[in-house]
Specification:
The protein is of the alpha/beta class. Helix content is 47%, strand content 11%. It has helices at 21-33, 49-59, 69-73, 77-90, 104-107, 110-123, 143-154, 156-164, 190-196, 200-208, 223-229, 233-241; strands at 2-3, 6-7, 9-14, 36-38, 62-66, 98-102, 127-128, 131-132. It starts with a strand and ends with a helix.
Length: 245
C-alpha cells in the first residue's frame, strides 16, 4: 500500500498458543527487517481479540500461518475460526490475501527464516490503490500448500482429537515447559477466563482450592498480566496478595 510517498506492507499471523514465543519474536523481527509491519503482535487473548484479529487481517496483504507441530497438536476452535477467515480471503476473486506457511524447520533456523522472508519481500508485487503493477501479492502463494492446509483444517477429526485428549488446561501440558521466571505454562490456564471477566469471588474460590496464581499461558501471560491489561486494579492487588509474581 502507498503511504507518504513510500510502499509498505502488512503481515498478519495465525499460530497456536503453544508456538514457542522466542521463535515468534524472531519472526516478527525479521518481518520488520524486511520492511513489513507484523500485525499479529497484539493483545494475547483479551476479551475482544477476535474483533482485533479480524480487523488486522482485513488490513493485511499477507498472512503467515505457523503450521507446526504445536498448531497440529492443539488445533482449537479459535485456530479453526482463524482458518475460515483466512481461506475465504485467500480465495476471493478481488485482491486476495497472500498466505505463506512456515513450519518448525524454518523457524528453528534463523538464516533460513531470513532468506525465506527476504524472498517474499523481493518477489511479491504490491497492490497500489485499484491498479496492480505487474501481478498481485497472491501470485507467489503456494496454492497446493494452501489447499493442503485447508483440507487438514476442514477434517473434523483433527479438532476432535484435540478435544478428546482432555480439557484445554491439560492438553499437551507436559510439552509447554516454564517461562523464564519459572511460571508453569499451560495451553489454557484455569484462572485466565475468570480473571478476564473480573469474577473475583470465583477467582478466590479457585485459589482457595489450590489453583496456581502464577500459571502462564502460551503467550507467557499470567493472570496478573491479564488483570493489569483489563484494568482490574482490585483484582490485581488480590492476586499479588495471594502470591502473584
Amino acid at each position: 500500500k502507498r503511504r507518504d510517498g513510500r510502499s509498505e506492507f502488512h503481515v498478519h499471523g495465525s499460530f497456536s498458543s503453544g508456538a514457542p514465543r522466542e521463535l515468534l519474536q524472531l519472526l516478527a523481527e525479521e518481518v520488520k527487517n524486511a520492511g513489513g509491519n507484523f500485525t499479529a503482535a497484539h493483545i494475547a487473548n483479551a476479551l475482544n481479540w477476535k474483533e482485533v484479529w479480524a480487523g488486522k487481517l482485513e488490513q493485511a496483504e499477507r498472512i503467515i500461518v505457523v503450521f507446526d507441530k504445536a498448531y497440529k497438536g492443539r488445533f482449537t476452535v479459535n485456530c479453526k475460526w482463524e482458518h475460515d477467515l483466512i481461506y475465504e480471503k485467500a480465495t476471493r476473486e478481488e485482491q486476495p490475501i497472500c498466505v505463506h506457511f512456515v513450519d518448525e524447520a524454518t523457524l528453528e533456523n534463523p538464516e533460513k527464516l531470513r532468506a525465506w522472508l527476504a524472498n517474499i519481500a523481493k518477489n511479491d508485487k504490491l497492490w497500489l490503490g485499484s491498479v496492480t503493477f505487474g501481478i498481485g501479492t497472491d501470485s507467489h502463494m503456494d496454492r497446493a500448500a494452501l489447499e493442503e492446509w485447508h483440507a487438514w483444517c476442514e477434517d473434523a477429526s483433527n479438532l476432535q482429537i484435540w478435544r478428546e485428549e482432555g480439557d484445554a488446561s491439560q492438553a499437551g501440558e507436559e510439552d509447554l515447559g516454564v517461562t523464564p521466571t519459572g511460571a508453569v505454562v499451560k495451553a489454557d490456564p484455569y484462572l485466565r477466563a475468570l480473571v478476564q471477566h473480573n469474577r473475583v469471588s470465583e477467582v478466590l474460590d479457585a485459589l482457595d482450592n489450590g489453583a496456581d496464581v502464577n500459571e502462564a499461558d502460551g503467550f507467557h501471560m499470567t493472570v496478573a498480566h491479564y488483570a493489569a491489561q483489563n484494568n482490574f486494579p482490585e483484582l490485581l492487588q488480590l492476586l499479588i496478595d495471594r502470591g502473584a509474581n
